[in-house]
């Protein structure tokens, strides 16, 4: 079943429209997921054979692309669902639905949609050519791979952990920035926070330029 794009809908930002959009987003997410062969409640035994939800935290930086490439080469296998988790710091209030998405995150966005510059702009993201090439390549080369993105707004550490639980993810791959000791103390490491607080297995991939 195809997911419905709301990019052309112009709903006034009033409470009733936001309630409608909330339930619409939930339904779209449900049908997007249920139209693919995965169960919403996988047992530990069934997780090994059922389709997995492999998450990758992406911000389109060099370290996130390294994490995405590592996940594609070492984790993702035919039948998996590759779910990109992107967190934006600010919300654009040009559309009423943005006020809702700040709390719940965006609907699930298929690869074909977030590859479209117009759709990506609506969500405030700018997927680069290299990231899109990695995703389109894995979608072609590995059978039955489904690539989708979900966008959150707020603190990256908290929202990534929220995504792990709410989607939910089978595992997560995240890149590690080469922060100095001072910066790590002052602002904290997103990857360290997710490793310590995430409720699924988390793999941290160090960017090549920070190795050594």
UniProtKB/TrEMBL annotation:
The keyword RNA-binding does not apply. It comes from the Eukaryota. The keyword Cytoplasm does not apply. Pfam families: Usp (PF00582). The chain crosses the membrane at residues 16-38. Keywords: Membrane, Transmembrane, Transmembrane helix. Residues 52-206 form the UspA domain. This is Universal stress protein PHOS32 isoform X1. It comes from Phoenix dactylifera. The gene is LOC103712645.
């Amino acid at each position: 079943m195809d997911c419905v794009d709301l990019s052309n809908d112009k709903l006034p930002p009033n409470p009733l429209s936001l309630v409608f959009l909330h339930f619409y987003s939930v339904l779209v997410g449900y049908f997007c997921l249920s139209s693919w062969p995965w169960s919403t409640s996988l047992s530990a035994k069934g997780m090994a054979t059922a389709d997995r939800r492999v998450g990758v935290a992406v911000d389109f930086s060099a370290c996130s692309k390294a994490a995405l490439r590592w996940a594609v080469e070492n984790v993702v296998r035919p039948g998996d669902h590759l779910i990109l988790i992107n967190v934006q710091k600010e919300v654009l209030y040009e559309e009423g639905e943005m006020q809702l998405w700040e709390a719940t995150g965006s609907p699930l966005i298929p690869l074909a949609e977030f590859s479209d510059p117009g759709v990506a702009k609506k969500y405030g993201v700018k997927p680069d050519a290299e990231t899109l090439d990695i995703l389109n390549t894995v979608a072609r080369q590995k059978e039955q791979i489904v690539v989708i993105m979900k966008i959150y707004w707020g603190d990256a550490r908290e929202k990534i952990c929220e995504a792990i639980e709410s989607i939910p993810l089978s595992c997560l791959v995240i890149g590690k920035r080469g922060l100095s000791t001072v910066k790590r103390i002052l602002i904290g490491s997103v990857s360290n926070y997710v490793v310590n607080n995430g409720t699924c297995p988390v793999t941290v991939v160090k960017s090549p330029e920070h190795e050594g």
